[in-house]
Batch of 2 targets.
Target 1
Amino acid sequence: MSERVLLHVGTPKTGTSYLQDVLFRNREQLAVQGLHYPADRFDGHFLAALDLMQLPWGGLQLEAVNAWDVLSRRVREAEGTAVVSHEILARASRAQAARALESLGHGSGTEVHVLLSVRDLVRQVPAEWQENIKHRATLSYAEFLDELRDPERSGDVASWFWGVQEIPDILDRWASDLPPERVHLITVPPSGGPRDLLWKRFSHAFGLDGYELELTEERANPSLGVPESALLRRINLAVNEDVPPAAYRPMVRELLAHQTLSKRRRTPRLALPPEHLEWVQTLSQSWVSELAARRYDVVGDLEELLGTPPKEYVDPDRPDEAQVAAAAVDAIHALLVESTRFELERNHAWAEVRRARAETEQAREALERSYLRAGYKIRRRFIGALERAGRPGRAMIRGYRWLRGRSSREA
Amino acid sequence: MATGTQVVTGVDPDVRAQSWIGHLRSGGFTDWASWPRHERQLTRPATPYRVPGAQHLELLRRLNHRAGDAGLPPGLADRVLAADATGRGLPDLPLAGGVEPAYGARPVDPATLPPRELLRVALGVLAGELIRAERPTKPRRTRFRRETYRLVGDPWLADPLRAALVADGRPPGGGDAIVYVLGADLGSMLVHAWLAGAFGGGIDPWPSYWRRLRAEHRIARRADLLHAADTWSARVGPRRVRVVLDPTQLPAMLRVKRLPTVPTPTHVGAELARRLGGVLGMRVSPDQRRQILGGLYRRRLEAVTPAGLSRLRMPSEDLEWVSDAARFVRGQLRDRDYPVIGDPDLLIPSPAPPVPEPPRPTAPGLLDLAMDLLVRSSSSE
């Protein structure tokens, strides 16, 4: 049984993908030293989270049946410390969180810690809008902000946003049963600081200091600029009805958003509109005060949650059209390159199919010629009679085939 | 742990909530707003209940009201209160009248919740009930004498007939098996193609599906008789392929006394199947999902569907292009010389009968049907 479980439940857009990538790449080495990250695929914990929360996710949930049970069993069977990490766990209801904690050994002798990486709302708000757009959303930035500010939070967008970003509420659902020393907040440092500071904080919180780990230089979840976000939203408006989720993921989200548009780094960045800054800062201050009063372990500084006012603001609902057009050209270029590659592969595959069909046709013609032989016709009539004779006849055929060593069956 | 604002009501809100939950669990259906607010009128349970979301409590209240004196099936109340709300939507909501939480979802009067939020819980409960009640049927031993056959084509027609034959000890296949490609009028087959997805592996909602067909005047692959006939002809030879448009002749050809008829469900029933499929897909294998929806769910749906209700059908404004496509298929079948059992003109759809269009699924309608199925189900079939 695991002595200790580090359960990292969020929040999105706080460098979680990078952490999970490092844990996955180095899992074997870590396991030897008593730190277990049970995962056979890089998205294993994501699927487990979908299963725990019974969340649809563009068809991926079909691969998640029983995934939480499998993960929790592997955690319980591990010796030492086990790590579970996925940011959508922030959205779990109280009942789901209680089930998860129990399944990981809470209340049965395992010391469960809840970890939450957190970033200021000044950056989280635009980041979450962009994440919505990368998941086929078509709402404008203004509509998104209106939904967030609606006190009823009745829309899906607001309900999801606050479910995964409202830090005190997340911890009420996940950690109300835990002593404060087992709740750890990792704050994301402000922009402009040392690039490895966030990783150092993660490393410290997860007990990875001192390990020789294979770290990657690549950003796990690159962000889009203003014209790129506007373009992606327009693409969603145009294609959502015609492009199913299974095709959207590789073509739009991966190829266009992550591999193409995110490389355009010189365009204006998304930011919080100035008119919403006071609201965000007032809310953030209330959270900081509440979290300080709860006396959780903080890796970083709670004051970082107050955020820094953006230096400039460019409205993605009214972008520079020349910049959007330039981004569109890059997108079309990427699609043409991919289509060309696909076309060449398809031509090659069709050539293989034609060759196989020709061989099949030759075999069929040879078979047809053999069917015309008198000996075959007699055998065929005899076999047909045996089949129509019922069970004894079919048993005789099976025996005959077994003796002959035939493995093929009739069509 | 969260701080909040105390709302003074004259009663401990926890006591009020606990007694209301006890009332609901024992079959009551007084709404939350009308529940007594003075402690002397309330009963505190010996062991406190876990307080679920307001959505769960309101769903249970409505189910109790619907069940009336007959009550709910045993254990269903507990399963409703323990269920997860499926999909995305509001989180578990606190009851209005208690401590106003400083963070998290706002408290609500459960009776004011929109039907779609109750439907999220109902779908999870209904999926769980179907999984619990599903009993795999052991097919009868293969019969001593049987016709060799295969049933392909329109899956809405072929799959249940094949399942019935297998259960009766007549599995498909065998040497020289005749391949019967089942069909109907093309309009019905296009509806059936969507139903096969809704009751099977999943498909877009009906309006999206039909909009795509209409835009391209396209025959859905599952409704493509020519494709099915050509595929099997290439596999077994054209002499062993028959296109069947008159299903009444099938029992005689297969030498059975009768075959089940397969009614088309209402649009609401089919849409509920489609949504249930999404939930079931997260809990059971694809084969089990297909068996549950095509078997147990379909039987229960028929049992609660009032006679005379309009069934899902092709929109009447699309009769012209579908009829054109059907005439093309009829011509191709004739040109390719496939034997057709039944009149080839049966492919051409008839104008819609002068009955109201089937009602479109709405959240209240889907919730109504889900509750009917929950209340009238039994744990054993």
Note: Residues 5-9 of chain B have pLDDT under 50 and may be disordered.
Target 2
Amino acid sequence: MLSEWTKLRTLPSTVWLLVGIVVSTVAVGALAAASLNVSHCPTPATCFEDTTKMSLIGVRLAQLGVVVFAVLAVSNEYGTRMIQTTLLASPRRLGVFAARLIVITSLVLVAGAAGVLGAVAAATEILPRNGFAPISLADGLTLRAAAGSVLYLALIGLFSAGLAAVVRDTAGSITFVAAVLFVAPMLLMFVSDPVWQQRLRRFSPMDAGLAIQTTRDLTTLPISAWAGLGVLACYATAAVLAGALLFRFRDA
Amino acid sequence: MRNLLRAEWTKLWSVRRWALALGSAAVLSVLLGLLAASGSGTDANRHGLYTAGPEGTPVEDAFQFVHQPMTGNGSVIARVTGQAGSHEWARAGVMIKEKAAFGARYASLAITPEHGLRLQANFTRDLAVGDGTAPTWLKLTRMGTEFVGSVSSDGANWRELGRIEVAGLPQSVEAGIFVNSPPKIRIERQAGSTSVGGVPTKGTATFDSVRLEAGHAGGEWLSDTVMRPSAEKLDPPIGSSSSSGGVFTVIGSGDIGPNEPDDDMVQIGLFGILAGVMAIIAVAVLFVTAEFKRGMMIRTTFVASPRRGRVLIAKSIVIAAVAFAAGVVAAVASFLVTQPILRDHGFAPPAFPVMSLWDVGVIRAIAATGLFVALVAVFSLGVGALLRHSAAAITSVIALLIGPAIVASMLPVEAARWLMRLTPAGGFATQRVKPPNDGLVEAWSMIPGWAGLVVVSVYAATALGAGLWSLRRRDV
């Protein structure tokens, strides 16, 4: 595991990507919070805005950084053929794979936590200026949304790492994962059949996973918060299993 | 340059993976379009809200009409002495209409509080013909199928403003003065959902010196409130008119013009292009970054062609042409496959007129989509040349193209619209045939197609410029 950590630590793109994850979460969340204003509400007392969800909207962009980070960590070695050196040094392939996943996930959790905390702090500053009540982690639902967002990023990291081990090509993996994540929300904007909408909201990785960010109108959620993360966990598990099996049994 | 182009083209099609990706891009686009179409439906035709007008598109026709019959060629003349500013598009003027009924053919010349003089015919044609407000003299003359609108300041000397064609009117028509005032629409976006509300407005105008100059004219002035038959049961008619001593005070409410549902069948059909675009981003980035990988083929390339800038230009021409072709093929295929499905799901006349591949709007949308895909390819190429790293380049392009599209669907109207104007995500507006609309979920419907192309062009040009600078200045 130490060798995996060293490899990732010494990769210059690691720092950039982790910083990027933090910055994009905070920046986009702050911009979204700044765009909200009580004047858009029917009456200031009855606003429908889910301020927590809007403040954490940066996660949708930051997840791209997580995807790239996880994919690079896994597939980079194939491009330079360093994978052969790695497997020569540690022939127990599943061990290598597991160690890599642990390092990736830990780093994503740290960066994600930093980003989410930063976004919450920014929103607490900005929202009162536009007339909303500040959000605070003391509130149970907000805490759940924040913690859930960090978990979401970690699961996205696992999902990407697994798929990268399957596809092994950096550009292809990134494009494929991005497509799987982003096509469903765009599709939802056009699909008006309620049955299809329900299906997409429940089973698409991004929409189901981010259900945990909702703190208002919880009864109207198509899938409950933790079940949504569970759906994403299923995707991640399947990807990791497929990746692990192929890593173990395929030629390097 | 021709050799350079041939060299770059060879490089592109000889990598099997890339050719495969481009081919599958078109197929994936059609499949995704099928998915979108199968999941779409509308019940717009079930509530009697949409009635087709003389030119096929659904229309709204509600106003107050004070009229007399007129036979053959002739003119209707009136002086509008005052108009209330109930709505920027409220109209007060003269009209010649087939009959005082909803959806009948007509031509009209009117003043508006904020848009000057307008010559309008058959709901879909609306020309700005001059500035002016009340008081002013207006004259509309019928000459067969041609209608001439004229204005005057004293009632004797007339200045022609414009002409408009209306075919199919019988010899005997109704001519007179009219007033309308469209409802005020308020759109609020909140928590990812949109609410659209309309409040009727009441338009008031005063006329005098109203007369017809025609073969057969004269008789009683009739006053009718023209409105949608199904609406008569819901809303009591607001229109009325009164006259004393030759001065008419007319009160009218409603809109005269196209009344199409917000959804755009062509846009839904072309949605699948998103999948193709993602594949093309990957190929365009790899087209340049693959040369920087170990082995450094870029050195061979630059030895063969020392003018580095030309190499990148050649690459961009090749990838743009390929992307345009792929985009157009995918768009045409998506359109042909999805339209029948959408028609089965409720997107049918009268609310949604049948769109064919040869309609001007459809051709424009397909060409614009092809151009959008080509520009995204050039943008990706430029970013790839600048960053020299495939992962970074692909991610940056996707972040700028798709990130804003998703985030904007949750923001209020103004913020969402600005995001579309300033990021390449606005390029998806090219898929729309109908005019921009603030009331839809997808934010890129708020800007016109050309605005989307402009912003993507700016990003493409900037990225290409930066890439050129980087290639020339830095070592390889």
Note: Chain A touches chain B through 48 residues (CB under 8 Å).
